[in-house]
Amino acid sequence: MTRQVLMRSPHVTRRQPLWLPEEPKTTRKGKKYGEVIGGTAAECTAVFCCCPLSVVDLLVLGLYKVPRGLCKKAWRKRKRQRLMRKTQIWLGPAKGTPTRADFEAEMERIVGKGAGGDDDKDDECTAAVDLEKEMWDRFYGTGFWRSPSQRET
Known about the structure:
This protein is mainly alpha-helical. It has helices at 33-91, 100-114, 121-138. The longest helix has 59 residues, at 33-91. The radius of gyration is 49 Å and the shape is elongated.
């Protein structure tokens, strides 16, 4: 018995591709009229709408916002000066910070009191104690590192 090999025939109903190429006769090269008109309309809108609005924005910036900012700055400065004048009237004239010459003169005055020309050790100790008492009296309770408990009586 001879075996016959049967070959199957391909399916008659094949799947069709989703995108069918159009025939060359109907294919048009280039843009369509609607695309050209739409692009032109978009460009005209951009030029005739955005440019004038940007010019108006620059005018508002130059004629309103910048002068307003300058006026506010001047008003704040004037108000600050008025407040400074009022506080000076209430508090009196402002005292400047001591200069180096002031410190040196003060040191000479303090050291000059204790120096009697004697080289005795007791005189130096009493001068140091006097200086310490004077400093405590002058700066009593003015520093965060000093407290009354540290003061030797």
